[in-house]
C-alpha cells in the first residue's frame, strides 16, 4: 500500500506557496473539528489537517460523511482570507471549483458540481465540501473524496449514488491528491485576495460551466419544506437563482437541492 504520511503528502506540495503546518493522522473524529481547534489556538493561514479515516465525518445540514480507512482523502485547510467580508460566502464555491480542478487533473475525467458543495463524476457523488467559519478570524474548508471503494463497499443508503475516482480506471495516489487539493484551495484564497473582480468572473464562469443543475428541474429543501423549482443561474455571491412554477424568482443562500426525477 502506498505511504500516506506528512512526508509523502509534503513531497507533492507546490513550492510556490508559503510553508504552512501539515498535520496527518491515522484516525480522527472530524478533520474540520481538529482544524477549528487549531485555528482558534492560532494556527496560521494554509495549515492543513489530513486523516486516513474519520469516525464522525460530516457534511452540510448535519449529514454524516462516510470516511473509511485507506480509500479516501479527508482533509481540512485553515484559511485567514484578507478579502472583503462580502466575498467570504464565495469560498465554498471557490473550494468546489478548486477541488474539481485538482481531481480532474489527476483522473482526467470531467468533474461536475451540484450546488453548492458536492462533486460528481459520471452522475455519482465522489466528493463533498464543508465550509465552517470562526467569526471573522478564520475559515475552515473541509473536503472528503472517495478515491476508491473500500473493501466493505458503500453502505446501502449510498449504493448507486456514491462513486469513486477509480471508476475511470485510473489509480490515483492519495498523497498526490491531498497535496493537489491543499494547493488548489490555498491558491484559490490567494487569487480572491489579490484580484477579487477578476477571480470572481473566472470563478462564476467555471462554476456555471461545471454545474449539473443549471437549466434543470430541482427539488429545494429549506425552511419552508420541499418545493419544486428550475435552477436558472448562480449570482456573484455564489447563491443559486431558481424559478418556481409560478414564475417567481428566488435566491438560495442556503438549503439543499436535489435533481427532480420528472
Report on the architecture of this protein.
The structure is a single chain. The protein is of the alpha+beta class. The protein folds into 2 domains: 205 residues, 2-Layer Sandwich (BirA Bifunctional Protein, domain 2), CATH 3.30.930; 43 residues, SH3 type barrels (Roll). Helix content is 26%, strand content 26%. The protein is built from 5 helices and 12 strands. A 7-stranded mixed β-sheet has the order 1-2-3-7-6-5-4, sandwiched between helices. Strand 1, helix 2 and strand 2 form a beta-alpha-beta unit. Helix 3 crosses helix 5. The N and C termini lie far apart (44 Å). The mean pLDDT is 91.
Write a concise synopsis of the structure shown:
With 262 residues, the chain is an alpha+beta fold. Helices cover 26% and strands 26% of the residues.
Write the layout of secondary structure elements.
Elements (H helix, E strand, L loop, with lengths): L5 H5 L11 E4 L5 H10 L7 E4 L20 E8 L10 H18 L4 E3 L3 E4 L2 E10 L5 E8 L27 H21 L1 H15 L6 E6 L2 E10 L5 E4 L5 E4 L3 E4 L3
Parallel strand pairs: 1-2
Antiparallel strand pairs: 2-3, 3-7, 4-5, 5-6, 6-7, 8-9, 8-12, 9-10, 10-11
Helix pairs in contact: 3-4, 3-5, 4-5
Amino acid at each position: 500500500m502506498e505511504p500516506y504520511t506528512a512526508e509523502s503528502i509534503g513531497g507533492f506540495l507546490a513550492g510556490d506557496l508559503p510553508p504552512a503546518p501539515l498535520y496527518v493522522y491515522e484516525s480522527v473524529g472530524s478533520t474540520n473539528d481538529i482544524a477549528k481547534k487549531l485555528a482558534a489556538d492560532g494556527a496560521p493561514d494554509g495549515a492543513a489537517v489530513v486523516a486516513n479515516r474519520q469516525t464522525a465525518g460530516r457534511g452540510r445540514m448535519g449529514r454524516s460523511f462516510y470516511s473509511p480507512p485507506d480509500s479516501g482523502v479527508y482533509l481540512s485547510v485553515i484559511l485567514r482570507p484578507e478579502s472583503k467580508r462580502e466575498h467570504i460566502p464565495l469560498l465554498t464555491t471557490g473550494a468546489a471549483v478548486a477541488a474539481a480542478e485538482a481531481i480532474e487533473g489527476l483522473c482526467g475525467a470531467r468533474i461536475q458540481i451540484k450546488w453548492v458543495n458536492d462533486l460528481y463524476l459520471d452522475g455519482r457523488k465522489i466528493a463533498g465540501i464543508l465550509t465552517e467559519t470562526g467569526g471573522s478570524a478564520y475559515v475552515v474548508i473541509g473536503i472528503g473524496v472517495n478515491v476508491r471503494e473500500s473493501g466493505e463497499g458503500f453502505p446501502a443508503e449510498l449504493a448507486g449514488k456514491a462513486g469513486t475516482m477509480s471508476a475511470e480506471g485510473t489509480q490515483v495516489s492519495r498523497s498526490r491528491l491531498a497535496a493537489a487539493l491543499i494547493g488548489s484551495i490555498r491558491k484559490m484564497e490567494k487569487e480572491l485576495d489579490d484580484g477579487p473582480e477578476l477571480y470572481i468572473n473566472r470563478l462564476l464562469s467555471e462554476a456555471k460551466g461545471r454545474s449539473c443543475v443549471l437549466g434543470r428541474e430541482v427539488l429545494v429543501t429549506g425552511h419552508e419544506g420541499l418545493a419544486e423549482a428550475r435552477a436558472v443561474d448562480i449570482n456573484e455571491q455564489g447563491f443559486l437563482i431558481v424559478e418556481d412554477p409560478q414564475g417567481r424568482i428566488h435566491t438560495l443562500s442556503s438549503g439543499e437541492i436535489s435533481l427532480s426525477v420528472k
